[in-house]
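Let us work through a complete example step by step.
Step 1: write down the sequence.
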Amino acid sequence: TPFIEQQGLWEMISNPLNEDSRGASPPAASGNGGVSGGATRNGGPFSAMGPTPDEILYTPWVTQMPTFRCPSDPGVGLPSLGRTNYAANLGDSAERAHQGDWNNSAPIGYGNISAGLANEIQGAGRGFFTVHKSRRFRDVLDGLSNTIAAGEIATDLGDKDARTAALNRGWSFVRNYPPNDCDNLVDPARPQFWDASQNTVSGVDGRGFRWAEHLPNFSGFFTAQPPNSPICNEQNAGNSGWYSASSRHQGGVHVLMGDGAVKFLTDSIEAGNQSQLGINAYRSAGSKSPYGVWGALGTRSAKEIIEDVF
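Step 2: predict the structure and record it as C-alpha cells.
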C-alpha cells in the first residue's frame, strides 16, 4: 500500500487501531478481557497489522482502493469488503495453494511446518508467487518476459456467474479431477452462468471480495484453465480449487509479465489437455506444464519453450 499512494492506509494497518469503522471508541468489554490491541468482532481494539481479512469492522479491510479496481468491473459494496480485480499468478497446479507448507492445526505459522506439506508445495508451487514463500526475480528461471506475475479477475455480482462464484466439489477435488471437470455444470442456455440447480459458495465469498486475503478465491489464479473458465473449489472458499483468470473485457484478460509488460491474452489461448489431472504437475517439480502455452506462461522454472507470439 505505501507504493500505490496509500501511505495513510499503511499507517492505519501498521499501528494499533482503537476505533471502529464509524470512528467511535470501542466498548470497554472488547471480548478479549478488555486488553488493548486484541482483535475482536465488535469494532476493536485491533492490534498492529490488523485482524483476519474477513473482519468487516476493521476499516482498512473494507477500504476500496482505486488502484486495485478495473474500470470495466461494476462490482461494488456489500457483501464484499474491499474488492480487487488483480490477482497473483500461482502457477498451473492448485494443490496446497491455500496453505503451502503450514499445518492447519494451531499454532498456524512458521513454527508449525509440515514436512509432508512442504514436499507437496515444493512440487505444486510452480507460479510466480507461492503462498507463505518469499519469491525473488532470480527464482524465475524461465525468464521474466515469459512468466506471468499477475492478472485480472472479475469480481462477483451475486448472479451465479461461473467465473466469479465457485462450486463446492468436495475435498481432494484438485487431486482427483481435471480443470475442466466443472464445465458441464453450467446452464446450457447461458454457459457463462451456473445451472440453477448448482450450489455456489456463500454470498460473502465471491471472487475478489477481499483485497487483503491471500486465498486463491480472493486474490489468486492458476494457468490451468483458459481465461474466463468456470471455477470450482474444495469444500469452500478457504481451500484451493481450479480458479481461472477472468475479466469484464470482451474475449480475454490482461496479464502482467514479470518484466513489467502488460499483455492481453485471449480466451482461446492454447491451453493443452484440459482433461489432464493437475496431480501430475504436483508430483513432478520442474515437469512440463500439461496446459499448453497458457500453462507454460504460468510456471517460473519448468523450462518450457514458448514459440508462440503472444
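Step 3: interpret the result. The first strand starts at residue 86 and ends at 89.
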